[in-house]
Specification:
By secondary structure, this protein is α/β, with parallel strands linked by helices. The chain folds into 2 domains: 3-179 and 222-243, NAD(P)-binding Rossmann-like Domain (Rossmann fold), CATH 3.40.50.720; 181-218 and 247-285 and 300-317, UDP-galactose 4-epimerase, domain 1 (Alpha-Beta Complex). 42% of the residues lie in helices and 15% in strands. The chain is built from 11 helices and 13 strands. Helix 5 (93-114) packs parallel to helix 6. The longest helix has 22 residues, at 93-114. The protein starts with a strand and ends with a helix. It binds NADP nicotinamide-adenine-dinucleotide phosphate. NADP nicotinamide-adenine-dinucleotide phosphate binds next to helix 1 and strand 5.
Length: 320
């Protein structure tokens, strides 16, 4: 039985990836900050507690990472842990960059020192391409980060490439565009939108406030995107892949879709400039051609289908 270690196992992607790897027969080990402090609600929601092993560890400490690798002897490591919010990164630039970079470096260094044959996946992000010239974004598009979060992800991305090229390790990055689900963090746009809209429906809020709704984003479905992570570690050679839906929608189209679906008055949508970001990408979408061709990753969903699924699950769990 293959062992996989997942960092960030308590997050959206970590929970779905754990479930996928269990289905594929892996022994799944998750590194968490602390048994008591970590939020295990997503793992509980998917019924995964007891089926996976949770190990406490500080990813900022190389000796702790090395000890975990030597104890569990994984074949694969998926590095999903990160301070993952762009807006929070503007308030906490140093913490975001320090953790998101040091954790990648420590894991790769621990792999190099313990067993360089371990396969490594790094969670890179479309945010790396902040100042966009040419669309769609591909694996060779120009990188120009516009936030502390994006800077941390660019650095992690190049550390990963450097370990692959310098030490001949199986290290690769998935450059993922926004992907959503019921398990998405509460501070992210789609989750806030649907939750807020249900609050209006249930009389808990009177209206919803947003920042710039004219920006366009390429959104997808988390459960399908974690499949691509696994596929990346099953190839003959390590490569980086853009994972995306291939089309972008304005946030306004998305907000209108949710309000219309729940039969809410569009006049309850308000714009507040205080939510505008210091720097903002206006339109971004990627090409998933390489992932489709090389990984045989198959993605057909429209984002409206994804919204339907999330709204249904949110309604089922509302108030629980
Ligand atoms: P998420 O739900 O925000 O989960 C982040 C995970 O990182 C959580 O398990 C969290 O643990 C852990 N973490 C955060 N800070 C940590 C720290 N200082 N020490 C240890 N663990 C820490 O993120 P996600 O949506 O699943 O995304 C997974 C990865 O993909 C992230 O690296 C993210 O940046 C990247 N990514 C996501 C998207 C997207 O659209 N979702 C797109 C591109 C890239 P706690 O529970 O203990 O806080």
């Amino acid at each position: 039985m293959k062992t996989a270690i997942i960092t960030g196992i308590t997050g959206q992607d970590g929970a779905y990836l754990s479930r996928l790897l269990l289905e594929k027969g892996y022994n799944v080990i998750g590194i968490i900050r602390s048994q008591y402090g970590s939020n295990l609600s997503r793992l509980k929601y998917l019924g995964l507690i007891g089926k996976i092993t949770l190990v406490e560890g500080d990813l900022g400490d190389l000796s702790q990472v090395l000890t975990i690798l030597n104890s569990y002897k994984p074949a694969e490591i998926y590095n999903l842990a990160a301070q993952s919010s762009v807006s929070l990164s503007f308030q906490q630039p140093i913490g975001t960059i320090e953790f998101n970079v040091r954790s990648v470096l420590n894991i790769l260094e621990a792999i190099r020192l313990s067993n360089p044959a371990i396969r490594f996946y790094q969670a890179s992000s479309s945010e790396m391409f902040g100042l966009v010239n040419d669309l769609p974004i591909t694996e060779s598009s120009l990188i120009h980060p516009l936030s502390p979060y994006a800077i941390s992800k660019v650095t992690g991305h190049y550390i990963c490439i450097n370990y692959r090229e310098s030490y001949n390790m199986y290290a690769c990055s998935g450059i993922l565009f926004n992907h959503e689900s019921y398990l998405r963090g509460e501070n992210f746009f789609i989750k806030k939108l649907i939750h807020g809209a249900l609050d209006i429906l249930n009389g808990k809020e009177e209206f919803l406030e947003f920042g710039n709704l004219d920006i366009k984003r390429d959104f997808g479905w988390s459960e399908k995107y974690v499949e691509a992570m696994w596929l990346m570690l099953q190839q003959d050679k390590p490569e980086d892949f853009v994972i995306c839906s291939g089309t972008s929608l304005t946030l306004r189209e998305i907000v209108h879709y949710v309000f219309d679906k729940l039969k809410l008055d569009r006049n309850l949508i308000r714009i507040n400039p205080k939510y505008f970001r210091p720097t903002e990408i206006l339109d971004i979408y990627g090409s998933n051609e390489k992932a489709k061709n090389v990984l045989s990753w198959n993605y057909q969903m429209s984002f409206f289908e994804v919204l339907d699924l999330i709204i249904e699950e949110e309604q089922m769990n509302y108030g629980k």
